[in-house]
Design goal:
single chain; alpha/beta; Rossmann fold
């Protein structure tokens, strides 16, 4: 199974340990902290000591650093190739964005750990599982993989049924093969 781990750089040791354990069990793991997983060097926050300051920066220019663009594009590619996205808490917006992208792509996901005191995120309920301890992940992944063929068949049947319903309700073309929606300016 291809696995993408998302978390905070502050959890780098946990990410590395989990990646090693999952690789030991035969999984291919993208660990954002591991230079061997990347074509570009990892970019921990310390690489850019000047934090965004709206008094000094225009965000539209500040965020467009080439290194950041390459890093997020590489992450997006790895998320797209993954079967499973693991989110290790606590973490910030970037890790949640990576996890959310995976969920939006229809990837299986698991949230591990707990947020900081006073924080919570109901979107974590999108995950296939929420685990309290990092030590429970490998066992959960093993169970997931054992049930994977049946789950994939059920998901395929579900998608096919949805496609059939959609085509019944919203046919692609109207009379004589013409679209159902009127043409808009600039369309042919």
């Amino acid at each position: 199974m291809k696995i993408y781990i998302s978390s905070s750089w502050k959890n780098a040791a946990l990410v590395r340990a989990l990646a090693a354990e999952l690789r030991f069990h035969g999984h291919e793991v993208f660990d954002f902290t591991d230079p061997a997983c990347r074509s570009e060097p990892p970019l921990p926050p310390e690489s850019f000591p000047e934090e965004f300051d709206p008094e000094k920066h225009f965000y539209s220019f500040y965020i467009r650093r080439g290194e950041w663009r390459r890093t997020v594009n590489e992450n997006r590619k790895a998320i797209g190739a993954a079967d499973l996205i693991i989110l290790i808490l606590p973490c910030g917006a970037d890790a949640h964005a990576d996890w959310g992208l995976g969920v939006g792509m229809g990837k299986r996901s698991v949230v591990v750990g707990c947020p900081r005191k006073g924080e919570r995120s109901p979107v974590h309920l999108w995950a296939d599982a929420i685990l309290d301890h990092i030590g429970d992940v490998a066992e959960w992944v093993t169970k997931l993989e054992a049930n994977r063929p049946a789950a994939n068949e059920a998901a395929t049947r579900s998608v096919e049924a949805l496609a059939d319903q959609t085509m019944t309700r919203f046919p692609r073309a109207g009379p004589a093969g013409r679209g159902l929606l009127p043409a808009t300016a600039g369309s042919k």
